[in-house]
Amino acid sequence: MMEKNAKKAKRLKWLGGIFAFIVLAFLGAGMYFYNVAVVPGHKTFLSSSKPLTKSDPLYQEKLWYKKATKKHLYMMSSDNKLRLDANYIKNGNSQKTVIILHGYMNNKDGMGEYAALFHSLGYNVLLPDARGHGQSQGNYVGYGWMEKDDVKKWTQKLLKDNPKQEIVIFGVSMGGATTMMTSGLKLPSQVKAFIEDCGYTNAKNAIEHEAQALYNMPTFPRFPLVEVLSGITRLRAGYFLGDADSIKMLKKNTKPMMFIHGAKDNFVPTEMVYKNYRASNGPKQLWVVPGASHAKSFATHPQEYKAKIKAFLNKYIK
Fold this sequence. Notes:
Elements: H1 2-37, H2 59-67, E1 71-76, E2 83-89, E3 96-101, H3 112-120, E4 124-128, H4 147-161, E5 166-172, H5 174-183, E6 191-197, H6 203-215, H7 219-237, H8 246-250, E7 257-262, H9 271-279, E8 284-289, H10 297-300, H11 302-314
Parallel strand pairs: 3-4, 3-5, 5-6, 6-7, 7-8
Antiparallel strand pairs: 1-2, 2-4
Helix pairs in contact: 1-7, 2-3, 4-5, 6-7
C-alpha cells in the first residue's frame, strides 16, 4: 500500500512539474509576444520607410507636407499621464478641420500625403502622434482602445480654440480602428463624419491573424497563447486585447462613416471591412479598392481616392 501511494505521489509530482513547465513556457512566450506586439519599437515584420523619390505615386503630396508650415500642439492624454504631440497645419480661414490618425508603429510625419489631400479639399489638418509613437510619451500600444479617448480630447482642444469649426476624423490601419472606436463615444456635435481606411475588427482578431500569417502558428498554441498575451496586456497596459473592438463601438455610432479597404490586403484581411461596415448604424459608404494591398489604397488609385473622399464629405460638411 505504501509503495502504491509512493508511486501515485511520484506520478502527481511528475504531472505537476509538466504542468508548471507548460504554464511557465506560455508565460514566457506571452511576455515575448507582448514585447513584439504591444511595446513600441522597431518591428522586423513591418516595411521600413524609404527615401522619397519622384517615382512615388504620391511624391507631390509628400513633398508638400515636408515643406508645409506646421505648428506643434501638445496635450496631456485622457488619463493625464502622458504628454502627447501633434502637428497642426492651418488652411487660411477654413472652418473645417480633419484629425488624421496614423497606423501601428507609424507617426504623424508618415501621414503627410493624407494631410496634403485634405488640405487641398479646404481642411485645416491636425496630425497627432498616438501614445508610444513619434514624439508622444508612452510605453505601450493601445490598439485604438486607449487612444480613442485621446482623440476625443483632441477634438475638445480644437473646439476650445474655435467652437464654430466642423471636424472630420480619418485614420489608416490602427488609425482606422481608432477612428471606428472613437465613433462610438459621445462626441461634440461639431464632429460630423468619419473615414476609416483598412482598420481591423478588433485587436485580438488582428493579432491572431498575424500569429498565423507571420509565424505560421496553428490553432494550438495560438490558443491559449493570445489569451495569455491579452492577460499580460491587461496587467501591464490596462486593457484586454478584446476590449479594442471596432464592431462594438460602431454599433453605437449614428454619424456618417466611409469605409475603405484594399481588395488585396493580407495584413488586415479584407473580409474584416464587411463586418465593420455592417456594424455601423449611421449613414455609410463602402469602397473596396481593386488591386490595393494594406494601406496602399491612396497610392494605388490616387485620383479616385481623393474624388471619393471629396464626394462623401460634401454630403455632410458645409
